[in-house]
Amino acid sequence: MVSAARRVSRPGAGLSVGGPSVAVVARTRAIYRCADCGHEVAKWVGRCPECQAWGTIAEAAAARPALAKVAAGAPSAPAMPIARVDVESARARPSGVGELDRVLGGGLVPGAVILLAGEPGVGKSTLLLEVTHRWAAGSGSPALYVTGEESAGQVRLRAERTGALHDQLYLAAESDLGALLAHVDAVKPGLLIVDSVQTMATATAEGSAGGVTQVRAVATALVALAKERGLPVVLVGHVTKDGSVAGPRVLEHLVDVVLQFEGDRHSTLRLLRGVKNRFGPSDEVGCFELVEEGILGVPDPSGLFLNKREVEVAGTAVTVVVEGKRPLLAEVQSLVASSSMPTPRRAVSGLDSARVAMVLAVLERRGKVKLGNADVYAATVGGMKVNEPAADLALALAVASAARDVAVPPDMVAIGEVGLAGEVRRVAGTGRRLTEAMRLGFTRALVPPDSGPMPSGMRVSVVEDVKAALRILRKEGKPLRDQNDD
């Protein structure tokens, strides 16, 4: 008979050695986390299976188990009926830059945290320097611009070039979160700019600046600072090669507003898009022009996307697209040339290449426009990017005009989506689009059926399919001589 002293319990149970049972403590299991994307794995690997980065997996402390019970604490403020909640402290204040206020829904809300993302060199720092200058000059409270990417002298030279010098605009070059908070305590600003969140670091978090852990810790601290003091904070964010915000996805969830600053290096046009906005519309667009003296808001940008010419040219058509809630006129150009290659070339700039290929196929099959042995080039004017299906009809007219050497009437706009069967489908807001076209001097329009009420004074032709649009082009277009005949 085995004595009780030698009796050993199974793993996981109490251990009895001739006395009271002793609980066996389970061994804590280590986890490994990627420093770039935050993905966790059970064991160390050389390459992250989520973001495919090499050498970013490191051992991290295991998360503590959640408590089974949470004790009730004292609330920060008593709950009250929603009708009695004070809203004056949450009203937006104009920043002084009209196009930015349009995208934000009226201006900067106290305590709001805004993330401004964009590619390098697009003009983020120039825009925010202008915002701080306008705020310092017109709000009555100082503005603090903290840069972690440049020296204070470099920012000072840019401010001198753009005319953004003001006594109430404070500048600090810091990359430590603790030093940044000390500057905030000393200056007591009404607006804080942090350029950029990926360059800031704190000693309370592991990893280097720009890593997942550091970005999360810095963003959390700045959000808490903004909410505690009612201070609007603007964070500059880097983007990856595919255009998304660099760092953890939680960064976009922590902030109140996410803005995307877009633009082509070869064009002066810049578009500010609202991606997320807790205080206003999330589909609004602001237009800016980057010039030598700084950045200027463009309240009426349609003229930037139209090419003014004295002589009619084949291969151009004008449409009206909607960016956010703003209708903009866009000119679509096309060139069709004979090709000696077995596979003709298709080159696209500013348009969706998949939709261009679809429209070309519809033109050849439904409109009887021969394009099989021709190179086709399609582009927009002014560096504008058009992805809206409403530009399909204008693209079809531009290609047919270039192929048949017939100029589209200069006072005509074309609006409509083209389907695979050749039909022209209606799009939203046709009346509002035509009103904008009338304001700029256009008097004729091609629109889909059932487009709703049209503005008076505009000659509207309803086209049911591509064939009907080509018949109008053949009837009202101006035939041109071939350039080779000169």
UniProtKB/TrEMBL annotation:
State the source organism's domain of life: Bacteria
Annotated SUPFAM superfamilies: P-loop containing nucleoside triphosphate hydrolases, Ribosomal protein S5 domain 2-like
**Ranges of residues in domain RecA family profile:** 89-239
Molecular function per GO: ATP binding; ATP-dependent DNA damage sensor activity; damaged DNA binding; hydrolase activity; zinc ion binding
Q: Name one Pfam family in it.
A: ChlI
From the record, which residues define motif RadA KNRFG motif? 276-280
Quote the PROSITE patterns the UniProt record gives: RECA_2
Q: Where, by residue number, does ATP bind?
A: G118, E119, P120, G121, V122, G123, K124, S125
State any GO BP term from the record: recombinational repair
Alphabetically sorted, this entry's keywords are:
ATP-binding, DNA damage, DNA repair, DNA-binding, Hydrolase, Metal-binding, Nucleotide-binding, Stress response, Zinc, Zinc-finger
- Keyword Metal-binding in the entry? The reply is yes
- Ranges where the record places region Lon-protease-like: 375-486
What InterPro entries does the entry give?
AAA+_ATPase (IPR003593), DNA_repair_RadA (IPR004504), P-loop_NTPase (IPR027417), RecA_ATP-bd (IPR020588), Ribosomal_Su5_D2-typ_SF (IPR020568), Ribsml_uS5_D2-typ_fold_subgr (IPR014721), Rubredoxin_2 (IPR041166)
GO CC annotation? cytosol
Q: What Gene3D superfamilies does the record tag this protein with?
A: 3.30.230.10, P-loop containing nucleotide triphosphate hydrolases (3.40.50.300)
Read off the domain note.
The middle region has homology to RecA with ATPase motifs including the RadA KNRFG motif, while the C-terminus is homologous to Lon protease.
PANTHER family, from UniProt?
A: DNA REPAIR PROTEIN RADA (PTHR32472), DNA REPAIR PROTEIN RADA-LIKE PROTEIN (PTHR32472:SF10)
The record's function comment reads: Plays a role in repairing double-strand DNA breaks, probably involving stabilizing or processing branched DNA or blocked replication forks.
Family to which the UniProt record says this protein belongs: Belongs to the RecA family. RadA subfamily.
This one is known as DNA repair protein RadA
The lineage, from the top, is: Bacteria, Bacillati, Actinomycetota, Actinomycetes, Pseudonocardiales
